[in-house]
C-alpha cells in the first residue's frame, strides 16, 4: 500500500484486532512511497514449520551476495522490495518464538572494515506520522543516504520513565542503513541524522538514544524534557560518576 494509507490500515487491521500477535511493516527506499505489511495472528491450523526456533548461524555466500546486491547494485532496492522480501516471507504457520527470534547473524556482512550497517530510530505521535514520513523521505533522498529499509512500529504511551520516548501513543521509524567507516562517511551520516532529529522534534517526537550519538545537546533536551530531573537523580545516587558511558559523557554535566 502507499505510505499515506498505512496509519488507517494499521488502525483497522492491527490495533483493534485482539487476535493479532505480531505485526511488521517496511517502507522501501528509494522512493519511500510504498509500505509492505505482514500480520501474524493466533490460529488452530497445523504447523507448517515444526521447529521451535529459527536455525542459528552466519549467512552463506548466497545470502551475503544478495545483501551486497540490495546495498550496492543499481536496482538493488527493487530487488529487495519485489523479489527478496516476497520470496523469503511466504505465508506459514509457526510458533511465535520462531517468528520473533531471528538470528542477528543473518544480517552480518563479510567485512566491516570499510563499511558497516547500522540502525537509527525515531518516534512521533500518531498524528505526526504523515509529516515525519514526508520529511524523512525528503532528507534521505537529498543526502542520498544508503538506506535498505525503514521498519514501522507502534508503541503505547509510557508516562512513567523519565527518559520516555513515548509520551503518547507513537509510531516509530527504524532505519537500517549502510555507511562507510571513514571520518568523511561518518560526517555525512551525522549531517542527515541531525536533520532527521529536527524533523522528529517538529512532529512532536524524538530520536532513540542507544545508537550512534549525533544529536546536539539542544536536540537531546528538546526530545527528552525530563532529562534535568533524571540527571538530578543521577547526581544523588551516583555522586562520584562511577557508572558512565558515551551517552552520559555526551550530555551529562557531572561536575
Helix/strand layout:
Layout: H1 6-15, E1 20-27, E2 35-41, H2 61-72, H3 76-88, H4 96-100, E3 115-125, H5 129-142, E4 147-155, E5 170-180, H6 183-202, E6 206-207, H7 217-223, H8 227-237, H9 246-251
Antiparallel strand pairs: 1-2, 1-4, 3-5, 3-6, 4-5
Indicate the structural class: alpha+beta
Uncertain residue segments: none
Query: Mean pLDDT, as a whole number?
Result: 92
Order of helices and strands: HEEHHHEHEEHEHHH
Query: Main β-sheet: number of strands, strand sense, barrel status?
Result: 6 strands, antiparallel
Amount of helix: 25-40%
Count of runs of 4 or more consecutive helical residues: 9
SS elements, strand count: 6
Q: What is the radius of gyration?
A: 20 Å
Q: List the strand order in the largest sheet.
A: 2-1-4-5-3-6
Task: Tell me the overall shape.
Answer: globular
Question: What would you say this structure looks like, in words?
Answer:
The chain has helices at residues 6-15, 61-72, 76-88, 96-100, 129-142, 183-202, 217-223, 227-237, 246-251, and strands at residues 20-27, 35-41, 115-125, 147-155, 170-180, 206-207. The longest helix is centred in the last third of the chain and has 20 residues, at 183-202. A six-stranded antiparallel β-sheet has the order 2-1-4-5-3-6. With 255 residues, it is an alpha+beta fold. It has nine helices and six strands, in the order αββαααβαββαβααα. α2 (61-72) packs across α3 (76-88) and α5 runs antiparallel to α6.
Quickly describe the structure.
The chain has about 260 residues and is α+β, with helices and mostly antiparallel strands. Helix content is about 40%, strand content about 20%. Strand 1 and strand 2 form a beta hairpin.
Amino acid at each position: 500500500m502507499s505510505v499515506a494509507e498505512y496509519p488507517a490500515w494499521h488502525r483497522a487491521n492491527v490495533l483493534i484486532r485482539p487476535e493479532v500477535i505480531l505485526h511488521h511493516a517496511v517502507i522501501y527506499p528509494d522512493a519511500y512511497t510504498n509500505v509492505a505489511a505482514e500480520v501474524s495472528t493466533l490460529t488452530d491450523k497445523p504447523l507448517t514449520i515444526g521447529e521451535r526456533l529459527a536455525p542459528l548461524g552466519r549467512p552463506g555466500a548466497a545470502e551475503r551476495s544478495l545483501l551486497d546486491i540490495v546495498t550496492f547494485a543499481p536496482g538493488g532496492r527493487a530487488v529487495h522490495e519485489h523479489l527478496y522480501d516476497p520470496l523469503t516471507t511466504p505465508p506459514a504457520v509457526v510458533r511465535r518464538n520462531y517468528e520473533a527470534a531471528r538470528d542477528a547473524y543473518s544480517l552480518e556482512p563479510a567485512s566491516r572494515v570499510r563499511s558497516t550497517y547500522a540502525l537509527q530510530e525515531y518516534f512521533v505521535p500518531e498524528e505526526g506520522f504523515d509529516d515525519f514520513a514526508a520529511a524523512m523521505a525528503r532528507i534521505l533522498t537529498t543526502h542520498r543516504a544508503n538506506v535498505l529499509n525503514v521498519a514501522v512500529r507502534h508503541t503505547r504511551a509510557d508516562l512513567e520513565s523519565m527518559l520516555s520516548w513515548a509520551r503518547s501513543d507513537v509510531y516509530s521509524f527504524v532505519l537500517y542503513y549502510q555507511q562507510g567507516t571513514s571520518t568523511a562517511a561518518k560526517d555525512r551520516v551525522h549531517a542527515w541524522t541531525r536533520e532527521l532529529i529536527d524533523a522528529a522534534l517538529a512532529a512532536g517526537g524524538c530520536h532513540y538514544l542507544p545508537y550512534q550519538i549525533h544529536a546536539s545537546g539542544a536536540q537531546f533536551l528538546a526530545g527528552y524534557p525530563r532529562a534535568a530531573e533524571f540527571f538530578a537523580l543521577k547526581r544523588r545516587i551516583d555522586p562520584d560518576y562511577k557508572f558512565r558511558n558515551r551517552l552520559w559523557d555526551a550530555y551529562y554535566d557531572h561536575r
